[in-house]
């Protein structure tokens, strides 16, 4: 078993941790002395115990979930800054150049057909198919025609510049998109020594942000994204086990 496969086989444990503490709109980032980190809505101290209320998975969700630790178990707390303001892309100018929609037909694929493409790409890059499926679920929910407000395209939401650098001519062609997205994730896993959480953070926020913060950037959106992908991966593995 290679070092990478060993790392990826431990992803389920990471998923359990992420599932225990959904991350969204964090108020405080808590670091425990045992190395565990989590984002919480608020803290309540009673004697030598501290109750850490976990953030809900969505707005208006349940805020009663909590974990209780000894006060001495908390190494440090820090507020989570808001992510940098997103600038709206400039409106597209009329152009005679055909768009990918008119250049290529966009097929409609069944979940089974998408899974087959993911399995093929995963085998090529030694990446768990369920991890790729979880990323696709978070990025596009399996929509071949998905386009984000920032301009990311297709199943794995490739930005045009990234797609071009990966040799992807048409991001709406499922096989090309999955091949390019998987190659990009593979490159990020190599860059971050198979640290899956960092690779996912870089896929969402970019490697520059991960390098600048020497870890997962303190952006609520990015932390939520990493947790969402890992929770979905864990769900798939649990379903397969049953």
Describe this structure as you would to a colleague.
The chain is 45% helix and 13% strand. The protein has 242 residues and is an alpha+beta fold. The chain has a five-stranded antiparallel beta sheet with strand order 4-3-2-1-5, with no helix packed on it. α4 (111-125) runs parallel beside α7.
List the helices and strands and how they pair.
Elements (H helix, E strand, L loop, with lengths): L2 H7 L1 H10 L7 E5 L4 E10 L2 E6 L11 E5 L3 E6 L20 H4 L7 H15 L3 H11 L20 H6 L8 H18 L4 H10 L1 H7 L6 H22 L1
Antiparallel strand pairs: 1-2, 1-5, 2-3, 3-4
Quick description:
This protein is an alpha+beta fold and 242 residues long. The chain is built from ten helices and five strands.
The CATH topology of the largest domain turns out to be: Lysozyme
Q: What does the main sheet amount to? A: 5 strands, antiparallel
Number of strands: 5
Helix segment count? 10
SS content category = alpha+beta
Strand order of the largest sheet: 4-3-2-1-5
Distance between the termini: 25 Å
Features:
242 residues, alpha+beta, Lysozyme, SH3 type barrels, five-stranded antiparallel sheet
């Amino acid at each position: 078993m290679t070092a990478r496969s060993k790392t990826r086989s431990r992803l389920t444990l990471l998923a359990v941790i992420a599932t225990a503490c959904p991350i969204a709109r964090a108020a405080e980032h808590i670091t425990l002395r045992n190395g565990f980190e989590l984002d919480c809505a608020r803290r309540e101290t009673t004697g030598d115990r501290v109750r850490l209320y976990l953030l809900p998975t969505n707005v208006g969700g349940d805020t009663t979930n909590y974990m209780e630790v000894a006060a001495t178990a908390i190494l440090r707390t820090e507020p989570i800054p808001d992510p940098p303001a997103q600038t709206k892309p400039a409106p597209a100018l009329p152009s005679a150049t055909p768009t990918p929609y008119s250049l290529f037909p966009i097929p409609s694929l069944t979940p089974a057909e998408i899974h087959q493409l993911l399995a093929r790409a995963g085998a090529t890059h030694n990446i768990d198919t369920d991890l790729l499926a979880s990323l696709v679920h978070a990025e596009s929910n399996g929509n071949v025609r998905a386009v984000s407000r920032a301009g990311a395209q297709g199943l794995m939401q490739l930005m045009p510049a990234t797609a071009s650098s990966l040799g992807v001519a048409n991001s709406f062609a499922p096989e090309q998109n999955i091949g390019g997205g998987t190659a990009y994730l593979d490159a990020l896993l190599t860059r971050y020594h198979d640290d899956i959480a960092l690779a996912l953070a870089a896929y969402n926020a970019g490697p520059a942000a991960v390098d600048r913060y020497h870890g997962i950037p303190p952006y609520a959106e990015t932390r939520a994204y990493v947790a969402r992908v890992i929770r979905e991966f864990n769900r798939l593995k649990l379903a397969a086990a049953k």
